[in-house]
Amino acid sequence: MAVWSEINYSKSVSVGRIDAEYYQPEIMAIEEHLNEIDSIPLGELGKIICSAFYPAAVDLYEEGNVPFLRCVDIINHPVITKEQKFAQIPIDFIKNNKSIRCLNPGDIIISKVGTPCFTSLLDESMPSSALSRTVLGLKNIDTTIVDPRYLVVFLRSTIGFNQLMRERELTIQYQLTLERTRNIKVFLPPMTEQKTIGDILTSYSKKLHESNDLFTEAEGIFYNNLNIKTNNKHQLFYQNSFQDVVRNNRIDAEFYQPKYLKSIQYLTKNKYEKLGDIAYLRKGHQSRESEGDTLYASIKDVENYLVDTIDKTITTERTVFAEPNDVVLAITGATIGKTGVNATQNKIAISGDLVLIRSKKIPSYYLLVVFYSKIFQSLCQRYTTGATNGHLSISEINNFPIPIIDEDSINLISSKINKAILLREESNKHLEKAKDSVEKIIYQTRYGNAGTRRNN
Q: In this predicted structure, what is the pLDDT of residue 451?
């Protein structure tokens, strides 16, 4: 259905935007709501910062000790906790590059480039963390007028998120600027109401933490069965025979990294089976997201060992479906090895960047833990090919060794993962409740108790 807005030229000049997307009716409605009630620019609630130029740091991740927050760490994590797996850079690198900014627990971070407009709170458990150029930070928050937890929920609600989306600017790719982010309007209800909403976010975080603990326990059972006691470290110098080079048809030195060989030893020293012998594998099909009747998942929908397909559908006849309890594995780009399970009751079409793995013999939740383990991830790194955009072939994945531990341990691992997933679902309900509460307060403030929430 066609939609349109009419605005005065003077308004487009005053805001510095002439693109039609900026004046969509639903966005204009949000602006109208916030103009009618008490709201304050985000920039007045704290100091918005970002890192400027710094040298490439990817090669330092192995030796780093300070979390290096990137856009990918924000999108699916309203609360950033120490349990997440971050890129890390050395503290000396930060000291030697003064343009790198840092945040502390209680500060807020917003994704800036790539997939912008997502907001997160640094949990009290987090250490001081550095910002990459793909994110913005909000520090020195005035907690006398705003609860940071409420602010995160507001910025993730329809009203806050759509404002951020509106203020993106398109250069090579969409991104947020400091100035436009400062102008985002924030509705501030009384502190008692802010605290109530903030407490819901805390409940979300608590459930999530319990879920992560169960997953960690499941991983521990797996590692104990393989008697893994030390982490395999990256070595700078090593040698291999020419015979191995010929046999593997690989001349890249990284393929023979000792830590990868050690991982294979762990996986194969006891009973194991090749993945292709215990599971059905099939590559997904790339499709354009569209209004359709088929749920669809791509790499960015795989997070925290789950496949999340909220509001994403396609219309296509060429599909590969992940049935309930099927596992998917990312096989392209920087996310190779990323794994999730379809914990819904629906079948989900998967993109060509994912491989469907349907277990024939052992519980899918056990496979999920195996795939998430560092030693299995090492295999994914070892067998990745391609320099510009890495790729993992199904033929290689089929031959990956899957250790078969004792049945009681497999069942215990599966039980813990099942509980972890249920807790994750509960936590997501808390988050949605918090966002709904923000929107309800805003519309009731403008329209009174008779006001109804609109779907923005």
A: 43
Tens digits of per-residue pLDDT, 107-133?
A: 999 999 888 999 999 999 899 999 999
The structure tokens listed for 338 are 């990323």
Mean pLDDT, range 274-282, rounded to an integer: 92
| Order of strands, sheet of 87-89, starting from the edge strand that comes earlier in the sequence | 87-89, 66-69, 129-131, 102-103
User: Could you check whether 37-188 and 213-405 share the same CATH topology?
Assistant: yes
DSSP-derived letter for residue 76 is: T
Rounded Cα gap, residues 298 and 355, in angstroms: 10
Domain ranges of the chain: 37-188, 213-405
Q: pLDDT tens digit string along 287-340?
A: 766 667 778 888 888 877 888 766 666 666 668 889 999 999 999 887 888 899
Contact 109, 138 (CB under 8 A): yes
Place 453 in a pLDDT band, splitting at 50, 70 and 90: very low
Hey, what's the torsion of the CAs at 405, 406, 410, 415, to 10 degrees? -150
Q: Provide the whole-model pTM.
A: 0.79
Write the pLDDT tens digit of every residue in 337-353.
889 999 888 888 888 89
Degrees to nearest 5, angle at CA 428 with 72 and 347: 85
Q: Is 45 exposed, middle or buried (0-12, 13-18, 19+ CB in 10 A)?
A: buried
In angstroms, the Cα distances linking 190 to 144, 187, 441 are 11, 10, 10
Q: Does domain 213-405 have CATH number 3.90.220.20?
A: yes
Pair 324, 309: CB distance under 8 Å: no
Angle between helix 364-372 and 191-226 (nearest 10): 90
Which tokens go with 425?
């679902």
H or E segment and range at residue 79: strand 79-80
Say which amino acid occupies 43. Answer: G
Fold (topology level) of 37-188: Adenine-n6-DNA-methyltransferase TaqI; Chain A, domain 2 (3.90.220)
Contact 169, 175 (CB under 8 A): yes
How much is the average pLDDT of 66-81? 92
